[in-house]
Predict the 3D structure of the following.
Amino acid sequence: MSGLVLHGYWRSSASYRVRLALELKGIAYRQVTHDLRLGEQSAPDYLALAPHGLVPALEHDGRVLIESPAILEWIEARWPSPPLLPADPDAAAVVRAMAALVACDIHPLNNLRVLQALRDDLGAGEDQVQAWIARWIHAGFAALEALIARHGGTFAYGDSPSLADCMIVPQVYNARRFQVPLDAYPRLVACDAALSALPAAAAAHPDRQPDAQP
């Protein structure tokens, strides 16, 4: 397990997801930083490792895994205890749907390269960019709030952390970073607080990373 190498960036929410899963399972790993603001994810040596030019990437025993949902599923399959997916297939499908709301519906539209394209290619001003960010966060969080009302307990699904929480907590961090109001999502905010209070989750927080910057 000590051979795991996580290529990421302290403020990357996709990297944050993977850190959360690794910390919750007590899996040792080493981090390598690629500063997204400097475009280091597009450097030739990194593209040779991860041809999509995004973080995170996870190295293990000569293999390189990319895309955080696939990495999270791989971690769960290799180290199933403590579980981040319910054993029941129906319950697991709900958790995966919650995770997908973040990974597929919110985050891709607010990714750094999309925001850069809005500014640089389409000439959007900062007010327009902020409105764009908030639009997709609100749409996804409204759906998550409803699902947590149906299925949640202490956490997003029941009373144990799941892959859904590993997705939600970094997205809440992003929402706060972009000053998106969260008053309409009390259950989602409570789930974020519950996971963030765990020592393992606290260790994954962006501000606790070795490459964190003011």
